[in-house]
Amino acid sequence: MLLGSDNIYQQLDKEFVTHDLDHLSPYLWLVATQSSSHISPLHEQVLKGRAIVITENPELHLVWTDNRIFIKPIPRYMLSHAFWTTHLKPEASSQKNVNYQQPSQALIKAALGFMRTYYYLIEYESDLHIAKQARLLPHNDNNDITLEAFHQFIARFGDIQDDEVSPRYSNYGTLRLSRLNLWAKVFLRRFQFYQVNRQYSEYFARFYAPILFLFGVLTVVLSAMQVGLQASDNNNTQDSSHPGKHHWAASLTSSSLWFSVLTLLCICAIGLILSSLLGFMLLRELTFAMKGLLVRRRGTGAARKEGSDSLDPFRG
Questions:
Q1: Is the four-CA dihedral 26, 31, 35, 37 of positive or negative sign?
Q2: pLDDT (tens digit, 9 = 90+) per residue, 6-50?
Q3: pTM, whole model, 2 decimals?
């Protein structure tokens, strides 16, 4: 992104501020674990089978779906001490010129929150190697970034507290896109948070498996009911027309009747078990989310880090 002098803060706002996720932040406890450190390093993302996909949309940073996770690279200017001092410290800019445009607190908190995520993403040499391969870090042939240099740089951001970053980053790390799409219908009043499937075939393909499963279940149920009804009719006909005869036919008819009933009972049992399992998993996640919400609310009155040193990650 080219930063012009006239509208630099508007460009930085588009680069880092997550307006939608900040609006959703009071409800993100329904979406993800309530911990800003809930960010797996890059090597663990690979172990989980997630491909790292670069995005320049700040709303998608650390959002994952299926076998992909979207990560926004660090812009080169964010590694510059002079840039932070000039553009992301309102007290410094105001000292130069009274009429100098100052960055908003939302921008500063969003930038700090974004940079803090890399404190958790890159912990080991393997993480740094993955970040370089995925082009998450600025590349410089003359001065390649080492793990020690990166840790020395990013350590300041690790000390930043949750109340010093934007609501999106204050209590949440990685977010699941499927849940964001679900709750976006309720809280954002739109169909999806972000549309991944751009083709109709891809969109409807995800419904094939549940539709086929439901079709198979209904087919088995209807077949069992048909067998049961036919067996019951045959049993009544044999009892009335030929009493005491065709014992083998009567036994087969009775077995078919009971087998159809047993099949229906098995289908009902499987449906009940799957429904109970789904309800248990949803209840467990809801309970975990509620406990985290209560802990977070109780911790809002705890003592925060004093001073404003964390606003300048390069100080000292």
A1: negative
A2: 578 889 999 999 999 999 988 888 888 888 899 999 999 999 999
A3: 0.70
